[in-house]
Amino acid sequence: MGLATFRAIRIDKAEKxxxxxxxxxxxxxxxxxxxxxxxxxxxxxxxxxxxxxxxSPVVRRxxxxxxxxxxxxxxESSHPSWKAGDKVVSTGWGLGExxxxxxxxxxxxxxxxxxxxxxxxTARQAMAIGTAGFTAMLSxxxxxxxxxxxxxxxxxxxxxxxxxxxxxVAVLSKLGFHVIASTxxxxxxxxxxxxxxxxxxxxxxxxxxxxxxxKERWAGGVDSVGSTTLAxxxxxxxxxxxxxxxxxxxxxxxxxxxxxxxxxxxxLLGIDSVMCPLAPRQAAWARLAKDLDHAKxxxxxxxxxxxxxxxxxxxxxxxxxxGRLVVKIS
Length: 330
What we know:
By secondary structure, this protein is α/β, with parallel strands linked by helices. The chain folds into 2 domains: 142 residues, Quinone Oxidoreductase, Chain A, domain 1, CATH 3.90.180; 139 residues, Rossmann fold. The protein is built from 9 helices and 16 strands. The strands form 3 sheets. Strands 3, 5, 6, 7, 8, 15 and 16 form a 7-stranded mixed beta sheet that branches. It has a 6-stranded parallel beta sheet with strand order 11-10-9-12-13-14, with helices on both faces. It has a 3-stranded antiparallel beta sheet with strand order 2-1-4. The protein is globular, with a radius of gyration of 20 Å. 49% of the residues are buried.
């Protein structure tokens, strides 16, 4: 069965907070699961930054292997859906939080949590998308289900240069939407236009206290920021429009009013990627294989090694990471 130990980023409880280190992990310490996977690629998401720096108590048990998503090859399986050699993707389900995660050469998980790597997509591409891109696609699917179409008007994407935002901009523009990208990084204008943004606005336009209703500006939006930004988005959403809320980079509060909901029929669509059921997961990955330009994905992706994850963790929290980071595990 190969190595009894393997490289992993292990998080332990410390006197003050937590410590994280790249170390050897004993296979006997892996948790119960019916599929063992050789992890090939992972990525760095906002939540990974929180776990590695200890800035937020996302890790619920110790020791923990960090990393909330991976792509790799099944080594052994007692689950009916999976056999050795299958290419799989795992996101969510508490990986890296309550269940030993992805920053390791091996993972043992429940087969029900896995999705088959889509045809025509490599494991590296799947992690270039990762939880952030998967969440962006779930947001787009929610807007579509609500009935938002390009003819209804522009759509807005907040935190546009980040992981969720970059994929949302690329997908929405490919689907024919006029995308307004909101960012706090004015230097990323060319990057966002290249991804398909038609307009770029400064996040300061959305960061002040929100009016109950403001001028109608967009038919829909994808928000990974939360707080006053989301409140402003809602106040500026056109009659009957919707905003998909999927993140809290700006805070967990929502200082809004009921005005957009009861006077304009605006909907707030909640997006959860962690406990999302299997059918929508499969739908989202199938659409990512089709509706995300692979050339654009390659351009927004930077590759790092497992040891470099520590350096980028604080940067992703500070909003200094552009696009997506893939982590080469093996």
